[in-house]
Specification:
The chain is of the alpha/beta class and 292 residues long. The chain has a single domain (2-228), classed as Aldolase class I (TIM Barrel, Alpha-Beta Barrel). The chain is built from 13 helices and 8 strands. It has helices at 23-35, 55-69, 84-93, 114-127, 138-141, 147-156, 170-179, 194-199, 214-225, 229-237, 240-246, 253-262, 278-291, and strands at residues 6-10, 40-43, 75-78, 101-105, 132-136, 160-165, 185-188, 204-207. β3, α3 (84-93) and β4 (101-105) form a beta-alpha-beta unit. α6 packs parallel to α7 and α11 (240-246) packs antiparallel against α13. The chain is globular. InterPro entries: Aldolase_TIM, DapA, DapA-like. It is found in: Cytoplasm. The record marks 46, 109 as: Part of a proton relay during catalysis. This is 4-hydroxy-tetrahydrodipicolinate synthase.
């Protein structure tokens, strides 16, 4: 799965002032990412506000994105949830045309045991029509996938090719990176620790910030993956203030504010999320101006 080495971007879903999907903005965003040199795109993950889209809206966004991308870069679709049977049904109905992998978030809300998480992913891997990337984000799911469970899945499930890790736990990162199979990808789920994780053997990033700065971020990631950390480090550090400001209030409110400043799409969100404050929006604009 070397097509997923480097920078992937968890794309936002643009909305208009009436709350409808802004397909013109989505098309602009897609082309901005590809022109910026990212390696792949993730459609309808957390940053895409997937939780607020209906099934028919999700199908339309997946189809539209595949048509606009037209196989110029690989695509990954976010399909996950806390009801295993419902996830399996979603995978069964998913139109794979143009897509290369599934990103599936760990079950949230019902707080399963490690055995429950393992069995959830095991049956998903067995029935998914595409290779599966685990997504561990305990800050949102209230449930961590332990290093032991990740490694168990990596060794037992041939259709699981890697993990997107957003636990922030470097002790956990160390164990996974040390003991994982060589071809199992370890992808950062946190922009701010991308380069350190690459130095430890990570495979890249699925980024939020990349929506706004695809070229700047993907250039840094490629430098890191090539081993040129002397050149990559100062470029990466220049981006870190922008990273932190994006998440001061909510995601994707921060990154949608940045995209509005760039003229790519507006900053409308669906409730219960609201646009970031005017003060934070101005701070994001100032940090973005230092980079672009």
């Amino acid at each position: 799965m070397n097509k997923f080495l480097g920078t992937g971007v968890a794309m936002v879903t643009p909305f208009d002032q009436n709350g409808s999907i802004d397909y013109q903005g989505l098309s602009k965003l897609i082309n901005y990412q590809i022109d910026g040199g990212v390696e792949y795109l993730v459609v309808l993950g957390t940053t895409g506000e997937a939780a607020t889209l209906s099934k028919s809206e999700k199908e339309a966004v997946w189809k539209f994105t595949a048509e606009v991308v037209d196989k110029r870069v690989p695509l990954m679709a976010g399909i996950g949830g806390y009801n295993t049977a419902e996830v399996l049904e979603g995978l069964k109905k998913f139109n794979t045309e143009g897509y290369d992998a599934i990103l599936s978030v760990s079950p949230f809300y019902n707080k399963p045991t490690q055995e429950g998480i393992y069995q959830h992913y095991k049956i998903i891997a067995e029935q998914s029509p595409l290779p599966v990337l685990i997504y561990n984000v305990p800050g949102r799911t209230a449930s961590n996938i332990s290093a032991e469970t990740t490694l168990r899945l990596a060794n037992d499930c041939s259709n699981i090719f890697g993990t997107k890790e957003a636990s922030g736990n470097f002790d956990q990162f160390n164990v996974i990176l040390r003991d994982k199979p060589e071809d199992f990808l370890f992808i950062s789920g946190d922009d701010g620790i991308t380069l350190p994780l690459i130095a430890m053997g990570g495979s890249g990033i699925i980024s939020v910030a990349g929506n706004a700065i695809p070229k700047q971020l993907s250039d840094v990631v490629r430098l890191g993956l090539s081993g040129d950390f002397k050149t990559a480090a100062p470029k990466f550090l220049k981006l870190t203030n922008f990273f932190s400001k994006l998440f001061a209030e909510n995601n994707p409110g921060g990154i949608k504010s940045a995209l509005k400043h760039l003229g790519i799409c507006d900053d409308y969100l669906r409730l219960p999320l609201c646009p970031v404050s005017e003060q934070n929006s101005e701070v994001i604009r100032l940090e973005l101006d230092k980079i672009i």
